[in-house]
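Final report, closing paragraph on structural work. Over the funding period we assembled a curated collection of sequence-structure pairs, and we close with a single example.
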Amino acid sequence: MGRADETITLTTAQAIIRYLAAQFIEIDGVKTRACGGGFGIFGHGNVTCLGEALHDHKDVLPLYRGQNEQGMGFAAAGYAKAHLRRRFMFCTASAGPGTANLLTSAALVHANRLPMLMLCGDTFLTRLPDPVLQQLEHFGNPTFGVNDAFKAVSRFWDRITHPAQIIQSLPAALATMLDPADCGPAFIGLPQDVQGWTYDYPVSFFDEKVHRIRRQAADAEEITDAAELLKSAKRPMIIAGGGVQYSGAVAELTAFAEAHDIPVVETIAGRANMVNDHTLNIGPLGVTGSDSANTIAEEADVILAVGTRLQDFTTGSWTAFAKDAQIIGLNVGRHDAAKHMSMTVVGDAKLALVELGSATSGYSAPKSWTKYAQGERAKWSDYVADNTRVGNGPASYAQAIGVVNDLCDPRDRVVAAAGGLPAEVTANWKTLDIGTVDVEFGFSCMGYEIAGGWGARIAQAQIDPDQDTIVFTGDGSYLLMNSDIYSSVLTDKKLIILVLDNGGFAVINKLQNNTGNESFNNLIADTPTATRQVNVDFEAHARAMGAEAETVEISGLEEAFKRAKASDKTYVICAKVDPYKGWTTEGHTWWEVGTPHVTDNPKVQAAHVEQEEARARQRKGV
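Its predicted structure, as stored:
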C-alpha cells in the first residue's frame, strides 16, 4: 500500500492507464482485472500521450486495433454482455470524427445498460492553436463541441481540465459502470494538452482495488406485499428478462418457478434464462415471441416481471396483457421496477427471489393453469420444428437457424441484431444451455452482429475457449459494417458468420407491405435510383479480408456448417433466402407503428383503420 504522503509524477494519460490496470473484480471467488483491455484507433487527439501510456501497459491491458470506432463500441458491448456486465473494455478515439463515430455504439450500450469506458480526445484546453484540425466551432460557446453530444448517451460524462480531476473522475466512472442499477457507458473527454500535463499523484491512488458487484436487498415490506399478491393469483406468470442473467439469478429463478409451479416466459434479452426443454419454459414473449407465451400472457392475472425493462417488443406495445392484470416489477433499477403502475420490488434478483420464495412458501399455481401453459408450449414446439425444417417452403432465416441449432455445441454463443433475424432467432432458437444467446434488440442496431460477435469471441476465448461464437447477419447489416471480419482474422478470434442474403432490407419491406404501402427503397430490386441490379459476392469479399468462405444453397448448409466448425479461422457461409416467403408468421403480438391518418391509397387507409382498432387493447398505465 502506498503511504498517504507519497507521490509519483505522471502525465494525466499515464495516470489513467495505471489506475485502470490496478482495478480488479472478484467473480465467483476469482480475482481478475475489471478492465479487459481496450479497442483503439489512434489519431492526433490520442496517440502521442494516451498511446504512449497504453504502450507501457500493453501486456496487462491489451489494445485491439479497431477498423471503425462504431465497431469498436459494438465489440465492447458484445464483450460486456458475454461477461455479464462484470468486466468491461475501454474504447479510445481521436478528437473529431473518430470520437463522433462512437456515438451510435454509445447509444447501444446505454440502451442495453452495459459498461463501456470511452477515453476520447478533445480540443486544447489552452485554446492557443484554435481552431484545431477537426474542431467544430460554435461561435457563441467555445466550450461546446462534438464530445458534448455524448451527454445524451452516457451514464457518466466528464471533461478533464486538470490532471488532478481524474482522482475523482475515474472512481466515479468505475462505480457507474459496475453498479447494477445505474450501469451504462462512461465518457471521459481528454483535451490533447491536458493528456500530457503532469501532476504529483498520491501513490495510494494506484493501489490494487478489488471491486464486487453490489447486491441490494429488497425492502421487507415490498417483499411482503408482492408475496400476498402472488399468493392470490389464479393464473400467475413469470417474465424472465436479461437482468436475471446479469444478477446471476438463473438458478434462483428456476428454483422459484419450480417450487411454485409457475410458467415462465422470456424476453428477447432474457433468452437463454431457461433451456428449451424445461417443463416450465413456455417460450419467448411479445412481438417476436411465441403463440404459447403470448396466449398465457393474455390470460395471466398476476405477472412477476424479473429483470426486464418491459420495452414495447416485450409488451406488444402494452397489448400483450389483460388490462386488469397486476404486475410485480422485481428489478434492481427503480425506474424499471415501477413501470406501468407495477407493484415494485426494488432489489437484486438473486436475493429477492429467495426472499419472495420464502414469503410465498406453500403456494403453487393451480395445476390446470400450468398444464394449460405446457400444452400451449407443446403446440408451439411442433410449429417451430416444422418452421425450421429445410424444404418447408422457400429458403428462409428459420431454416438456416434450424440447421445451425441442430449442429452447434450447447455452449456455442449465438449473436444476432437488427433486421429480421432478431425475431427469427428469438422465436425459433431452441436454447441448449444457459446464457448462450445475444440478440441485440435494446437499440436494434444494424452492424452490431459481426463487431459484437468479435467482442463476444474475445470474452468467449476467456470463458469457454473451446466453444464457437456464431453470428447471424443479413446482407443489409453486412454491407453496413463488416470490417471486423478482418479484425477477427488479425486477432485469431474465430467467428462463424452466416450471411443470409434476401436482397435488401426485407423485414422493413415486409412492414411496408403489411401497412398497405408498395415496396419502395428497401429491397434492391425496388430501389428507384438503382439503375442496375448487382449481386454482391459476399464470399469473395470475406475471403479478401482473410476469412475462409463459401456460398451454398440452404440444402447444403449442414455440410458447410460442419466445415466451419472444423476450421481454425473465421469462416463465412453465404446463402440466399426468400425476401417475401418463409417468415415466421405465428407468435406475434400487435406492435404500434405510426400510420398515415389521411391517404389516397385505400390499402394504406385500411391498414390504418386496422391499426387504430387494435389500439383499444392497450393498457393506459404510465
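The chain has 24 helices and 23 strands. The mean pLDDT is 96. We thank the funder for supporting this effort.
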